[in-house]
From TrEMBL:
Protein name: Fructosamine kinase family protein
Keywords: Kinase, Transferase
Keyword Transferase tagged: yes
MF-aspect GO terms: kinase activity
SUPFAM superfamilies the record matches: Protein kinase-like (PK-like) (SSF56112)
Family: Belongs to the fructosamine kinase family.
InterPro entries according to UniProt: Fructo-/Ketosamine-3-kinase, Kinase-like_dom_sf
Domain of life: Bacteria
Amino acid sequence: MEELLNYLHLQAKAVPISGGDINQAYRVTDGEKDYFLKYHPQMSADFFQAEVDGLAELKNAVRVPKTYQHGSFKDTAFLLMEWIEPGEGNQKDLAHELSKLHKINALKFGYKRNNFMGLLPQVNQKSDDWWEFYFTNRLEVQIKIAKGRNRWTIEREKEYSLFKDRVYQKWGTMSFEPTLLHGDFWSGNTFFDTQGQPVFVDPAVSYGHREVDIAMSQLFGGFRQEFLDSYQEILPMQSGWQDRLTIYQLYYLLVHLNIFGESYGDSVDRVLALGGK
Ligand code: ADP
């Protein structure tokens, strides 16, 4: 840390920032201006390049921190960003800002590059077919990782096959539009600036079905009912959206199974058994 700060001609301002799961994050200063510095040892520079690209994509619609410098120094990847002083805001404005992202369309599902979900790979091969994209690029990439980590049982494989059939049977003919997604929309990845404007950080962007962001927002708490009600008012979701949330939550639960282990196994099994019904 000390060496990296010297290299960047910065000083640490205070204690580490809590809230992030993945990287070390600090408020730092050059004596005049404050910055937000994230770094990760033993990580390629592409890791933060993906974040810079994602923030640039979101910037067209919502407030994100400016990115100043990124790269790697002695095997440590780093990203230096604008420090945004946190303040108070309301759930209605947050819903409004999220809906702005979800109004940006693309021709296909996917994204121009692969990126990361936490430290895990997120594959974004473009596709015209939402379910093909979601099963192949999202669920099955994580299932492959789970197999490699001995977290995927025969039982889970069977349940997954039933789950997939069910989703195709029930929702296979419904059509969805590819829209810009934050991609990791939990409460730790959004806050308000001192003017009350929502700020979006740490994205895992792609173009997909917008209910994926809504599903993530409802998985671990932190968003109030007012958020959901306002979103529904501003940009109503297609019928059956409540029944599709668990389908999309499965992706994030698999990611958690892969990162944190079997403590997420029961939730994965529950969603595999019920998802899409
Ligand atoms: P990680 O990649 O480790 O998850 P995040 O980018 O999510 O780290 O940042 C961790 C926390 O720091 C966030 O939850 C947010 O509260 C705060 N934060 C993120 N970016 C900024 C910023 N530019 N200015 C001020 N605080 C920030």
